[in-house]
Automatic annotation (TrEMBL):
This is tRNA (guanine-N(7)-)-methyltransferase. Its EC number is 2.1.1.33. Belongs to the class I-like SAM-binding methyltransferase superfamily. TrmB family. Residues 150-155 are annotated as: Interaction with RNA. It catalyses: guanosine(46) in tRNA + S-adenosyl-L-methionine = N(7)-methylguanosine(46) in tRNA + S-adenosyl-L-homocysteine. The lineage of its organism: Bacteria, Pseudomonadati, Pseudomonadota, Gammaproteobacteria, Enterobacterales. Keywords: Methyltransferase, S-adenosyl-L-methionine, Transferase, tRNA processing. Monomer. The keyword Membrane does not apply.
Length: 239
C-alpha cells in the first residue's frame, strides 16, 4: 500500500548513498478513521512511490494545470484549495501517516476528484516521479525551520532543491513558500534570489501579502496567537 517514506539509492560503486533528511521521523497514533483511509482509500486516491515519471494525464484522467504541495500536514488547507479550484489538478506529498490518512478521508468525504496523495520523501518524488516542466505551482507551507544552527543543513530549502523545483516547473510556473520563522524566510529569500531563472513577485523585493488562494491553517493560527509574523514568498520561473 504505502512504501517506506525514503528509498535506498546506490552510487556507481554500489555503495549506499547517505542523504540528509529534511523531515522528522514522527508518526503518532492513527485514529480509526485514518487507518480505514490508509487501507481502503490510498489505493484509489493515493499514488505509490515509483522510480519513473508519472503519466499525469492518466493519473487524473484529464489534462489540467498541476499544483504540487510539499508537506501538507493534516491536509485541511490542501483539501480546501482542491475543492475551491476544481479546474486544477493537485498532488500532495507528505511523510506523516496520520496526516495522509486524514487528508484521504476528507478528500473522499467531500467527493474531491482532483487530488492525489503520495506518502514519500519529497526530494525523491520530485527527482523520480515528476516530469520536467510539468508543474504550474509548487507550494511549501510552514516547512520545518530546524532552528538550531547545526541542523540548518536539514532545511528543505537549499540551492539543490530549488534547482530541482526549477526543472519541474513550467515556464511561468510559481514556487510559493510560507513560514513564520524570520531567519528561515531570510534564508529562503537569499537562496532563491541566486537563481537567474526565478524572479521575485514581491514589489518590495522580499515578501508578498498572503494570497487568497492560500487557505489559513491551524498551524498558522497558532503562530499568530504566539505573535509570530507569517511571511509569504513567491517566485516565478521566467527563463
Amino acid at each position: 500500500m504505502i512504501n517506506n517514506v525514503v528509498s535506498v539509492k546506490f552510487d556507481k560503486q554500489g555503495y549506499a548513498i547517505r542523504r540528509i533528511h529534511t523531515f522528522r521521523r514522527r508518526q503518532g497514533r492513527l485514529t480509526k478513521r485514518q487507518k480505514y483511509a490508509l487501507v481502503n482509500l490510498f489505493p484509489v486516491i493515493g499514488t505509490p512511490y515509483q522510480i519513473y515519471p508519472l503519466n499525469l494525464q492518466k493519473l487524473f484522467d484529464r489534462i489540467a494545470p498541476i499544483i504540487l504541495e510539499i508537506g501538507f500536514g493534516m491536509g485541511s488547507s490542501l483539501v480546501e484549495m482542491a475543492a475551491a479550484y476544481p479546474e486544477y489538478n493537485f498532488i500532495g506529498v507528505e511523510v506523516y501517516l496520520p496526516g495522509v490518512g486524514s487528508c484521504l478521508a476528507s478528500t473522499k468525504e467531500r467527493n474531491i476528484y482532483n487530488l492525489r496523495l503520495i506518502c514519500h520523501d519529497a526530494v525523491e518524488v520530485l527527482e523520480d516521479m515528476i516530469p520536467s516542466g510539468s508543474l504550474s505551482l509548487v507550494q511549501i507551507f510552514f516547512p520545518d525551520p530546524w532552528h538550531k544552527a547545526r541542523h540548518n543543513k536539514r532545511r528543505i530549502i537549499q540551492p539543490s532543491f530549488i534547482d530541482l523545483i526549477g526543472n519541474k516547473l513550467a515556464l511561468g510556473g510559481i514556487v510559493h513558500i510560507a513560514t513564520d520563522c524570520k531567519s528561515y524566510a531570510e534564508h529562503i529569500l537569499k537562496v532563491i534570489s541566486c537563481f537567474s531563472f526565478f524572479r521575485n513577485l514581491s514589489v518590495t523585493g522580499d515578501y508578498v501579502p498572503r494570497p487568497i488562494t492560500r487557505f489559513p491553517t491551524k498551524f498558522e493560527q497558532r503562530a499568530h496567537h504566539l505573535g509570530y509574523d507569517v511571511r509569504d514568498l513567491m517566485f516565478e520561473k521566467y527563463l
